[in-house]
Amino acid sequence: KQKEVEEAERRGKANAKPGEETKSREEAARKAKVGEVDSGDSKTGSSKGMGIFVGLLAVCILALAAGKLLPGKAENEPDAPGGNGGASTLTDNTAKTSNESENIDLGPQIGTDFTIEGLSLKMVWIEPGTFWMGSPSGEDYRDDDETRHQVTLTQGFWLGQYEVTQEEWEQIMGNNPSHFTFSGKRAPVEQVSWLDAQGFIKTLNERERTAGRLPDGYEYSVPSEAQWEYACRAETETPFAFGASLSSRQANFGGDYPYGGASKVPDLNKTTEVGSYSPNAWGLYDMHGNVWEWCEDWYDADYYKSSLGSAPSGPSSGSHRVVRGGSWSSNARDCRSANRGRDAPSDRNSDVGFRLALSSALDR
To answer: Residue 293 contacts by C-beta under 8 Å, 6 or more apart in sequence?
Structure first.
């Protein structure tokens, strides 16, 4: 057999083309280097180890390509929804941080409207300005306490877009003193005295101050009489924000007693939900009718004759507080922008409520 093998090798060399013998020797050397042998398809122990190493290397390369071992994600952590592995986690975390920053409540920002946190009450920003307060001598049904005079409000302020509702009162105070509960939670709270309103405001101020949502030097209150009329008029000089006439299609008052030639409409004899009628030019609802609104000022029939023209704060004392705007039970004449009503601070009536203001204490 040995001779047959040797003879076969001689025949192979004899029949080989030039260069093939050299290539055969180089190939044998290469196989020996990596542990291969010419014994069919079998492998030695060394070749098996090399195969395992190559296989593991391939798995690692595939894992890296799939993003399984990217920084910021634990080796055994499951993929985030979306199938992007660790990259998705990083993107989601960045988006979450951004959203949390956007949701931080910085409180009222000067010059912009806002809604009081936890209430549905929107506060409308009112720019400072100058206006004619009171009524001209020729206005029908004017009273002697309406002497016309020019007033300048030196600082802007916020005023409630609506009267404070039964729902909002209940959220702050935990009860509902209103007579017209059947008008709904969105009807204005009434049967609250000026003193009752101060209790609501005190609680609200404490809550908002603790939460860091009050601008420095600002606090909630009922508006001053000057603030109320300035906002009601919304740059008009007519008896009403809507012009020289008023019917109960425009506001909730005693419809049998319209003003300025307007047609009669049957009375509702109750409050209505806030915002049921059109707003004035500054977006404020129910400045005429629904319920009278408490103001900060003491009432003095002669105050207009001697009041300061800049940010008047009202008399320093008195027995009655000013109410403005008329109500569901009023004649249209009492709903005029210039009309001044009054009640004792402790009086509670089903036609009196209030509207919130937020302003600098120095400007009231």
So the answer is: 163, 222, 228, 323, 324, 325, 352, 353, 354, 355
Q: How many CB atoms lie within 10 A of CB 93?
A: 12
Backbone angles phi, psi at 239, to 5 degrees: -55, -30
Element (H, E) at 31: helix 20-33
Burial class (CB in 10 A: 0-12, 13-18, 19+), 121: buried
CA atoms of 251 and 192, how far apart (whole Å): 22
State how far Cα 25 lies from the chain centre.
84
Angstrom distance (rounded) from CA 298 to CA 290: 22
Which one, of 180, 348, 203, lies nearest residue 268 by Cα?
180
pTM of the model: 0.72
According to DSSP, the residues that pair with 157 across neighbouring strands are 126
Place of tokens 């070749």: 47
Q: For the range 205-210, what are the long-range contacts, defined as Cβ-Cβ under 8 Å and sequence gap of 24 or more?
A: 207/172, 208/107, 208/116, 208/117
Q: Report how far residue 355's alpha carbon sits from residue 220's, in angstroms, rounded to the nearest whole number.
A: 10
What confidence tens digit (pLDDT) does each residue in 23-59 have? 444 444 444 444 443 434 444 444 444 555 545 555 4
DSSP characters for 218-235?
EEEEPPPHHHHHHHHHTT
Q: Tell the residue number behind the tokens 């042998």, with chain if given.
A: 37
Q: Is the pLDDT of residue 165 over 50?
A: yes
Task: Give CA–CA dist 122/192, Å, rounded.
Answer: 21
Task: Name the packing angle between helices 166-173 and 194-210 (round to 10°).
Answer: 60
CA distance 137 to 91: 69
Both tokens of 186, joined, read 């969105």
Q: What sign results for the dihedral spanned by CA atoms 302, 308, 310, 312? A: negative
136-161 pLDDT per residue, tens: 999 999 999 999 999 999 999 999 99
